[in-house]
Amino acid sequence: MGPSMLSEVEKTLILPIPVNNLDNDRKVLASYIANRLMKQLSFTKACEDGYFLAVTKLIRIGRGENNKFCPHFVNFPVSCYCRTFKPADGEIMTGIVHKINNMGVFLKSGPMNIVYLAARFMPNYSYVPGENPVYMREDLSKIEIGVVVRYMVFAVRWIEDKWREFRVLATIDDDGLGPVALNGLDELDL
């Protein structure tokens, strides 16, 4: 099996702090920095190291520097350890189908909004068009919107666009993969 999907990474970020949140010595409370750090990481969402899940340790708050572009802020370099999630080839995961077309299905899985399961990676499933399109097998098992699918990560690509996320190509061409029966559960939030 490949590397773990969860890891600890060290990150250094520049946090702009409003001048009115500084004391007379131009110092700022660590709790305020930690709060701003969490907000910035949730906005950033992900980096090449993976999706940000948590800040596990605040390492260092550097000396604040005047912001050249906005005098109402002081920029503080902040170093921390973050727990990240990065999908890896060969990993088995689950996701919920949220879109279907004749080329395949799109799943949401954890923090990932785009997991693509191409029709060619769904052996023995045929596309059935209509108002509520589905992929169906001869034994009548279906992949439709809202169904939980157990899949294997076939390939991963980091995309540095406005969404800043990993795009995952999935497959169910292996034993134990495909739609998951959730007896007694109406919905599952992954």
UniProtKB/TrEMBL annotation:
Keywords annotated in UniProt: DNA-directed RNA polymerase, Nucleus, Transcription
Domain of life: Eukaryota
Gene Ontology biological process terms in this record: DNA-templated transcription initiation
Chain coiled-coil ranges: none
Signal peptide boundaries: none
Assigned GO CC terms: DNA-directed RNA polymerase complex; nucleus
GO MF annotations, alphabetized: single-stranded DNA binding; single-stranded RNA binding
Keyword Nucleus: yes
Localization: Nucleus
Main location: nucleus
Keyword tRNA processing belongs to the record: no
Free-text function comment from the UniProt entry: DNA-dependent RNA polymerase which catalyzes the transcription of DNA into RNA using the four ribonucleoside triphosphates as substrates.
Protein name: DNA-directed RNA polymerase subunit
Organism of origin: Buddleja alternifolia
